[in-house]
Amino acid sequence: MDRVQMEIIGLTSSPQTSGSYALILQETGGMRRLSILIGGDLAQAIALELESLKPPRPITHDLMKTMIDALGTQLLDVCITELRESTFYAVLNIEGASEPIDARPSDAIALAIRCGASIYVAESVLAEAGVLPQDGDDFDDDDDDDEEESFEGEKEIEEAKPERPKTLREVLQGKLDVAVKQEDYERAAQIRDEIDRLDRNS
User: Fold this and answer.
1) Mean pLDDT score, 146-175
2) Nearest to residue 178, comparing CAs of 46, 40, 51?
């Protein structure tokens, strides 16, 4: 299988799906981009590591990295291998494993950035779902867990056009606004506490 190495260039709220985020990948040394729709919790897990922020207690992907290290192995790379019925599929390639491990792309990427592992996309997937940046896209090249990751395509890339990737505080503030709107005050209080901790540590 031909693979293309990718880099994360942006994470932005999706204008079409409330509570979801678009994770934007771009091929290393190239122009093609891939947009993957992910849930808010996974977006937060990715944003935490991208911004080098450590939560008070390890989240799932931190625990997975600790387990990999404790077992004396390493995550070699992750690869988005398929696009079926608008859903992306990925695998983890772990040293010593007899075969790749099936994973959601968002989980695979959240773990990859913690382990310093490369991110790849099958050439066939990039050929089908990849797009070229449109005028007005200003990502800087240097810069609900049960939800399936889906292909948003060129229309989504054109409509998103974010000014910059969302910061973790902005992601949390958005979740707080939703919780208050839904009158889920217990959840809102938890998010507010997380924002307060983030502000104290910044």
Assistant:
1) 55
2) 40
Residues 109-150 have pLDDT tens digits of: 999 999 999 999 999 999 999 998 876 565 554 444 444 565
Q: List the domain range (segments joined by +) for residue 160.
A: 3-166
More confident residue, 59 or 183: 59
Alpha-carbon distance 8 to 33, whole Å? 10
- Which residue reads 């080098």 in tokens? 52
Q: Rounded mean pLDDT of 98-117?
A: 97
Domain check: are 148 and 177 in the same one? no
Q: What are the strands, taking DSSP E only, across the chain?
A: 3-13, 20-27, 33-39, 75-84, 87-94, 101-103, 118-122, 150-151
> Based on the structure, what is the number of domains in the chain?
2
CATH number of the domain residue 159 falls in: 3.10.690.10
Amino acid at the residue 79: C
In the numeric block, the tokens 């901790």 are attached to 197
Closest CA to 46 of 167, 191, 158, 134: 167
